[in-house]
Amino acid sequence: EGGGGPQVRVGSKKFTESVILGEMVTQVAEQAGARASHRRELGGTTVLWEALRRGELDVYPEYTGTLRQELLVGRALPDDDALRKALADEGLRMSASLGFNNTYALGMKEAEAERLGIRRISDLKAHPELRVGFSNEFMQRGDGWPALRDAYGLPQRDVRGLDHDLAYRGMESGAIQLTDLYSTDAEIAAYGLRVLEDDRHHFPAYDAVLLYRADLETRAPRVVQALRRLEGSLTEAEMVQLNARARLEHVPEARVAADFLQASFGLT
Ligand code: PBE
Question: What number is the ipTM of this complex?
């Protein structure tokens, strides 16, 4: 292989779990003989999606609920077959689930939620004065704040957008009292946050998957085959642990990914 194998361009979104998964993909692709590069923290969901469709990326980690509620919103996608068909129309493929669901949820500090008697999202209706900070992407997405507010009839007006990786510090300092959580965030337990029940079932399942260009199957079949080993390889609890190593123990994402691949598949 004169050029050193096919080129595989991996992307990730601007949050820790996406970077860890992007690193796993990059390292697995290298193991399978590719020249792989990782554009880490490239941007938000739309940026990654557009880069993939334009052919600037070959693969990135995505979530099924995000495909349904944001990227392909408006199309009838009753099941996974319909979802795969809609993606095929865009020249894209989707892996099976990596094994875990990373859903949006709303969270508050446990003690404060207890004091105010807030267990469910609908309980927020009685507390219009809460200071709210949502991740920037959540402020605008199809499944985000405007849709959630309408679905529950929520009255909060003091709502600002912020970087998700900074939201927990804002919760800790008291600058904000309510934020959107990603359910595999290690900070939920570490900061003692209460996850409010989504009693109107606004949020769908967000199973983690790999989204890749269909042409990768002909250009780099060994890479696509190797990436399939990641399917079903992670439970939600395991993903929380990997996020904890990166976010709470400050281990670089590449090391977290490498250790996982070593432990799970013996890849070094
Ligand atoms: N998620 C939940 C979102 C952000 C929070 C991981 C499904 C996403 O990146 O699409």
Answer: 0.95
